[in-house]
Amino acid sequence: MKYIFVTGGVVSSLGKGLTAASLGTLLESRRLRVVLQKFDPYLNVDPGTMNPFQHGEVYVLNDGAETDLDLGHYERFTNCVLTRHNNLTSGQVYESVILKERRGDYLGKTVQVIPHVTDLIKHRIREISDENKYDIVITEIGGTTGDIEGLPFLEAIRQFILEVGPQNVVNMHVTLVPYIKAAHELKTKPTQQSVAKLREIGLQPQVLICRTEKPLDHDVRRKLSMFCSVSEKAVIEERDVEHTIYEVPLTLHAEGLDQLVCDLLHLQTPEPDLADWQKFVDRVVCPKRHVKIAVVGKYMDVRDAYKSIYESLTHAAASEDCGIDLKLIDAESLEHGDGQLKDAAGVLIPGGFGGRGIEGKINAARYAREHKIPFLGLCLGMQVATIEFARNVCGIGNANSTEFDKNTPEPVISLLEEQRGVHNKGASMRLGTWPTKIVQGTLAEKIYGDTEVTERHRHRYEFNMMYRDRMDTKGFVISGTSPDGTLAELIELRDHPYFVGCQYHPEFQSKPNKPHPLFKSFIHACLAREVGRAPRAPADPLSPRRVPETELVAQ
Ligand code: GLN
Q1: 93: CA distance to ligand 1 center in Å?
Q2: Which amino acids bring their CB within 6 angstroms of ligand 1?
Q3: Measured between alpha carbons, how far is 331 from 19 in angstroms, rounded to an integer?
Q4: How big is the chain by its Cα radius of gyration, in Å?
Q5: Which of 65, 281, 299, 506 lies at a CB distance of 3.0 to 4.6 Å from 518, suitable for a disulfide?
């Protein structure tokens, strides 16, 4: 078993997660079995309660774990399917150490960071590797070297290397090499200091991943090599990508990272086959046509808040050889008019919590329904589409979710307990993978080509089945339910080319060359609607980056 530890230096937001995931892509393409894991030094037990403004989206795993969005990169960039064991926070570490202490497991001893906290961290690395399913464990340590919270993790790694032997470990440090305009120079000092900080703790990186705006010239590479005690070929340039994050594995490969890591770990592997990945990138970079998708949500300035959705749109669009023009609309701005939706080929409403912007989202759903614009509602997006239809088509004027109006007389969306007449009972979230039975003869069945699917959930409220028949007669179809038929999972409108909502989050199961059927069919419907209109920003048909039709990857 081999181990790669990824630390970050100088500043946060360097894309460590993306770098770790990209290395995963490269190693998998060398036929190695890879698993990724993230250590987050903050004291929250999980990011489930954090504000998307601060922390980006909460990424949900099959087992219902609410995790850091970097786990989304890991799953998208590799074949690994993660569980709650793949994300460890300081909050979880201290929680279990204290629980053990209370149980008397450490009886007679003083409980300390070393060895009790560090032992627990090491145990988590071993736990994954013991499964014997993998050749390499890549562990990313969140935060920046020098953060107080990160120290126990780095100390645990130092001890771990001693236990498994340095020949089985690569320490990779992702760092910033800033360009100072006034001096026309790339500066190596911040990296030198960050590496010095790591050495103070007893860790010596073997690889430096240098995030930079400009190419690293020979002098800069030599300087970094000498001051940081890293061989010159292990100074890897990771320049800001020009078009898409999916270029990162290709640029790291061009810098020789995968070969270098295999050499450092004494692994004999075949040359990687990146042809499919390259084709996917080419299609993202140079699509045949573009389609404008309006996303109506709450956190439109925070790119990370709906990360998996934007990625899923990219995957689906590439599979249709088209690019996405994203139009991000703050739901509140739609409360008094829908003019902004006029040029959209499709409308997508993401998941969310709380009442802010709800009326704007309802207006967006109405606009898409009335103008026959393809619509995809995810979780809360499905719930607002339901409220809209109940109000404006079924004439249930007061229709609402009890999430926004606790005492609404027409709870078309409510807690299951409320539906059963039990009030004031706190329901917990429905999390993780649940099966959906698809109703035959529906659009959903065509989209999935299957009658049972499993999808990831993260919500409390449900469609109220008491309204099913009333809404069905008006054209609102429940096209997927839980296997026992009690919970609505999918909805669609009979009299609309593409109006689909799902109670779950398909965005957590889309990959570059394996787009999710809901996103793919949504983009397909948007393109179909655009037929006849002049394509916007057509790509140069002679561009060397265009992928010939015959070479498109079969989806
Ligand atoms: N707020 C809604 C619920 O709890 C939707 C949640 C979501 O979109 N993830 O059911």
Answers
A1: 29
A2: 351-353, 379-380, 403, 458-461
A3: 33
A4: 25
A5: 506
* Angular region, 482: left φ>0, alpha ψ -120 to 50, beta rest: beta
Give the chain's length: 555
Query: What are the tokens at 120?
Result: 């627990």
Amino acid of residue 361: K
Contacts 24+ apart (CB under 8 A), 417-421: 419/462, 419/464, 419/465, 419/466
Residue nearest to atom 5 of ligand 1 (CA): 380
Q: Which amino acid is at 424?
A: N
Residue 200: active-site member: no
Q: How, if at all, do strands 207-212 and 499-502 pair?
A: unpaired
Q: Give the residue carrying structure tokens 């430096």.
A: 208
* Catalytic-role residue among 116, 253, 496, 505: 505
At 323 the three-state DSSP class reads: strand
Please list the residues that pair with 376 across neighbouring strands: 348, 500
Give every CB contact of residue 209 below 8 A, 6+ residues apart in sequence: 19, 172, 173, 174, 175, 236, 238, 252, 257
* CA-wise closest residue to 250 among 271, 281, 207, 295: 281
Question: How many angstroms is it from 86 CA to the middle of ligand 1?
Answer: 25
Type of residue numbered 16: K
pLDDT single digits (tens) 518-544: 999 999 999 998 764 544 444 454 555
Residues 350 and 196: their CA atoms lie apart, in Å, by 44
- pTM comes to 0.90
Nearest to 431 by CA among 131, 110, 62, 73: 62
| Mean pLDDT calculated for residue range 4-31 | 95
* Ligand 1 atom nearest to 462, measured from its CA: 10
CA of 99 to the centre of ligand 1 (A): 32
Q: What is the pLDDT of residues 147-174, one digit of tens each?
A: 999 999 999 999 999 999 999 999 999 9
What would the pLDDT profile of 467-508 be if each residue is shown by its tens digit? 999 999 999 999 999 999 999 999 999 999 999 999 999 999
Q: How far is the CA of 98 from the centre of ligand 1 (A)?
A: 33
**Which is catalytic among the residues 75, 507, 516, 524?**
507
Q: Are 35 and 254 in contact (CB under 8 A)?
A: no
The yes-or-no answer on residue 507 being catalytic is yes
Catalytic residue among 80, 379, 394, 502: 379
The reply to whether 379 belongs to the active site is yes
Two tokens at 357?
A: 């912007």
Gap between the Cα atoms of 480 and 445, Å rounded: 9
Residue labelled with tokens 């959930």: 457
